[in-house]
Amino acid sequence: MPTILVTGGAGFIGSNFVRYWLRQHPSWEVVAFDKLTYAGNKSNLKDLEGQTNFTFVQGDICDREQIEPWVAKADIIVNFAAETHVDRSLLSSGEFVRTDVLGVHTIMECAHEHGTGLIVHISTDEVYGPILEASADEDAPLRPSSPYAASKAGGDLLALAYAKSFRIPVIITRCCNNFGPYQHPEKLIPLMITNALLDLPLPVYGDGKQVREWIFVEDHCSALDFLIENGTPSEIYNIGTGYEKQNIEVVRAILKLLGKPESLIRFVADRPAHDRRYSVNWEKLQKLGWQPKHDFDSALTQTVAWYRENEWWWRQIRDSEEFKRYYEANYAWRLK
Ligand code: NAD
Ligand code: DAU
C-alpha cells in the first residue's frame, strides 16, 4: 500500500486533508504525524479512529529521531506542521522559528539522506507581505511583515534550496486564507462565530477594512490533491479564489447568519504591522485545470452551521486554561 505522510495532520487544514485524501484515495495508507501543540487536536480526527489504513503518530518534526523513519517510509509527504497564528507570533516567536524553519530543515535533511517521493511544502500568501494593488504572482518579492510570515518565508526558501541543491522533489504552495470546520477559535472566522454564539464582543482590529482572500478548506485540499497529480517539482504554486472581503464584511455576514446584533462589534487596537491586503495571482494553477468548487457565501453559511452544531468541539478549546491565557494576553487590554 502506498503511504502519504501528513505532518501537522491534527491541525485545521491537515485534518481536513487527511479526511479528503482517505475519501479520494482509499487504497492509500495515511499517516498523520503531529506534535499536538495547543493547535493540534486529536478530536479533529475522531471520526477516523479504527480505520485500518489510517495511523496517528504523536511527534515533533524538529526531532530527527522521531520524524526520520516516517520520512524514509513515505511515498508522498505533505508538510502542514507549523506555528500558524500571527497574533501569537507577536507575543512570542521562538516556536515559530523552531518549527517553521528548523522543522522544515529537519524534514529536508531526512529526505536528503533517504530520498523520498514528492514533498508538498505548505507555505502561505503572507510571505508576499501586503499587496495593495493587483495580485502577487509566484515571482513577486517576499516581504513578510510578522515573525510568523518571516518564519514561513524562511522554511519556504529552505525547501526550495534543498530542491535545487539536492534534487529533492519539492512543490511549494502559497495559499490564501482558509476557513471551514475544525479551525481553531483563535482565527478570525471561528473567533467571531464563537464569540457571537457566546454573546461576547467581536474584536475587529483597526478600521476592519483590511482585505483577505478566502478559500473554503475543502477547496484547498482539492488543489493540493490536484497538484500532487499535475504539479512540477521545484515549482511554486499560488492557490487562490478571487473571493476578497474586508474583515468587517465577514464579521457582519457572520452576525447576520446567526441572527445576532451588530452592536456586538468592537473596533479595537490594531495588530502591529497589520497587512492591509493579501491577493494572489493563481493563473498558473488555473491554467493547469484547477478551479475552486465552493463560493464564499455558501461555504460561510456551511461553516457557521458547523460551529453551531459542534459546540462540543470548540467548547473544549475555549474552556481550556491555555486559550483563556491567550485571550487575556491578546484581547483583555484591547477590550478595556
Ligand atoms: P493549525 O495551527 O491549525 O495546525 C498546525 C498543526 O501543526 C497543529 O496540529 C500542530 O499541533 C502541528 N505542529 C506544530 N508544530 C509542530 C511540530 N514541531 N511538529 C509536528 N507538528 C507540529 O494550522 P493550519 O491553519 O491548519 O495551517 C496548516 C499549514 O497551512 C501551516 O503550514 C500554515 O502556515 C499553512 N497555511 C494556513 C493558511 C490558513 O489560512 N489557515 C493559509 C495558507 C497556509
Ligand atoms: O493568508 C494566509 C494566512 O491566513 C495563514 O498563513 C495564517 O496561518 C492564518 O492564520 C491566516 O492569517 P491572518 O492573519 O490573515 O488570519 P487571522 O484569522 O488571524 O486574521 C484575519 C484577519 O482578521 C486579519 O486581517 C486580522 C483580522 N482579525 C483577526 C482576529 C483574530 C481581527 O480583526 N480580529 C481578530 O480578533
Characteristics:
binds 2'deoxy-thymidine-5'-diphospho-alpha-D-glucose, single chain, Rossmann fold, 336 residues, three-stranded mixed beta sheet, alpha/beta, 44% helix, 12 helices
Per CATH, the architecture of the domain at 3-178 and 216-239 is 3-Layer(aba) Sandwich
| Contiguous helical run count | 12
Q: Any idea of the CATH topology of the domain at 3-178 and 216-239? A: Rossmann fold
Beginning-to-end CA distance, first to last residue: 56 Å
Which residue ranges are poorly predicted, with pLDDT under 50 across at least 5 consecutive positions? none
The topology string of helices and strands comes to EHEEHEHHEHEEHEEHEEHEHHHH
From the spread of the alpha carbons, the general shape counts as globular
Strand order of the largest sheet: 3-2-1-4-5-6-10
Q: Mean pLDDT score, rounded? A: 98
List the helices and strands and how they pair.
Elements: E1 3-7, H1 12-24, E2 29-34, E3 54-58, H2 64-73, E4 76-79, H3 86-91, H4 94-114, E5 118-124, H5 147-166, E6 170-175, E7 177-179, H6 188-197, E8 202-205, E9 211-216, H7 217-230, E10 236-239, E11 244-246, H8 247-258, E12 265-268, H9 283-288, H10 296-309, H11 311-318, H12 321-335
Parallel strand pairs: 1-2, 1-4, 2-3, 4-5, 5-6, 6-10, 7-9, 8-12
Antiparallel strand pairs: 9-11
Bound molecules: nicotinamide-adenine-dinucleotide and 2'deoxy-thymidine-5'-diphospho-alpha-D-glucose (DAU).
